[in-house]
Write a structure and sequence with these properties.
- The chain has 362 residues and is α/β, with parallel strands linked by helices.
- It folds into 2 domains: 57 residues, no CATH class; 269 residues, Alpha-Beta Barrel (TIM Barrel).
- It has 10 helices and 15 strands.
- The strands form 3 sheets. Strands 1-4-5-6-7-10-11-12-13-14-15 form an 11-stranded mixed β-sheet, with helices on one face. Strands 2-3 form a two-stranded parallel sheet. Strands 8-9 form a two-stranded antiparallel sheet.
- It is globular and about 70 Å long.
- The two termini are 24 Å apart.
- Bound molecules: S-adenosyl-L-homocysteine.
- S-adenosyl-L-homocysteine (SAH) binds next to strand 11 and strand 13.
- The site of S-adenosyl-L-homocysteine (SAH) has 16 residues, from strand 11 and strand 13.
């Protein structure tokens, strides 16, 4: 069963015509402090605003404690526009897929995935994707554009607001995964800033191990991660350690070979990541044989690695198929022998095309 709703303009209003306001949600706390300093406003304002709009989840302008002059500045220069919810699909397992309409009418999707009456949110980082992975529905639409920080934060806030209104008893979003549309490390600046806002103590105050950025192995982004990214988890989409196969699945492997990617990911200093997870997509008769499992085991043996096995999620026009559960189990048991902690990821929301790799907003 899936339920379709079309909701127009429920989440905030567009900035008035003619006035070029900037989105409040594009600012990290440091940037907001700089903006306040440049405009000779009281320095207590930014933390108060972060608290008000993020921690207390207030939509109305902040009236308490904020100096009059700051209130006037906020009203004149900042807007609180969130992406518009265009369509909501709910599946029987309580997964919710949001289709968001952006200011230029492009669309992206985000998914709330339920766990014991709490949620993980799967966020998009780009409209479409440039990586062209052969097994991914998003890849078939190409890259339209990067999302801005406020559009990433906006997906979270709009979904949070919907939960509070519609499922007030279980409205907690505890984890964030950048596993929606796009390659997050290809949009490094916006994703990094969004993470800083998610982690900020005065902001959404998530713990570092609650945020995971998944990458197809975009090495230029990983190189920057080493010095710039706040401490969050990395997930590397592995899918094969055999060059010919990985080249076919993830074309950027030809430019950024997995060996370099893994070396880089494993070398990221303690202070900038918690741990590295490897995602292995299992495709029937392509990368699910015992030889593939042994190759993966040998490749990751002795590394500080966790593996998530994801059975392929089909989508319209896909060339690949999902293996039987028995194949998935035997793949896992081979990895177990290499002493690599391995989890089989349960698919949620696939009836509404909300599972990994099923998002497409062409
Ligand atoms: N670009 C990033 C994040 C987006 S994809 C990345 O590649 O990691 C998030 C995860 O979903 C990745 O591990 C990706 O390989 C996986 N995925 C993509 N298409 C899939 C499909 N059809 N079935 C199952 N997983 C898929």
């Amino acid at each position: 069963m899936s339920l379709l709703l079309r909701i127009q303009g429920k989440c905030g209003t567009k900035p008035p015509m003619g006035i070029k306001k900037r989105s409040f949600y594009q600012f990290t706390l440091t940037e907001l402090q700089e903006l306040f300093a440049e405009n000779s406003l009281p320095s207590s304002g930014p933390a108060l605003l972060f608290n008000w709009h993020y921690k207390k989840r207030m939509i109305a302008p902040c009236e308490t404690d904020l100096a009059k002059v700051s209130r006037a500045f906020v009203a004149d220069h900042l807007d609180f526009y969130l992406p518009e919810i265009d369509l909501i699909q709910e599946s029987a397992d309580k997964t919710v897929k949001f289709l968001f309409k952006l200011h230029d009418n492009l669309k992206v999707e985000s998914v709330l995935i339920p766990f014991n009456n709490k949620y993980t949110i799967c966020l998009s980082s780009q409209v479409g994707c440039a990586m062209k992975c052969s097994f991914c529905f998003t890849g078939t639409q190409g890259l339209k554009r990067h999302l801005q920080t406020e559009e990433i934060i906006g997906q979270f806030l709009a979904a949070q607001r919907w939960l509070t209104q519609n499922r007030p008893k279980d409205d907690k979003i505890l984890n964030i995964v950048f596993m929606g549309q796009g390659e997050p490390l290809h949009n490094f600046d916006a994703v990094k800033k969004a993470c800083e806002i998610f982690l900020n103590k005065n902001g959404l105050c998530l713990a570092p191990h609650k945020i995971t950025i998944s990458t197809a192995g975009y090495l230029p982004g990983l190189e920057r991660w080493k010095n710039e990214m706040p401490k969050v988890n990395i997930a590397v989409s592995l899918h094969s350690t055999i060059k010919e196969k990985r080249d076919k699945l993830i074309p950027i492997n030809q430019r950024y070979p997995i060996e370099d990617v893994v070396r880089f990911a494993q070398d990221i200093p303690e202070g900038r990541t918690r741990f590295v997870t490897y995602e292995y997509l299992l495709i029937k008769d392509f990368n699910d044989s015992p030889e593939d499992a042994h190759a993966t085991g040998r490749f990751l043996e002795g590394k500080n690695a966790y593996i998530n096995l994801i059975p392929f999620n089909p989508f319209p026009g896909a060339d690949y198929q999902r293996p039987q559960m028995q194949e998935v189990e035997s793949f896992k048991s081979i990895l177990d022998a290499y002493k690599i902690p391995t989890l089989i990821r349960k698919t949620k929301g696939d009836e509404i095309l909300a599972a990994c790799g099923q998002l497409n907003t062409k």
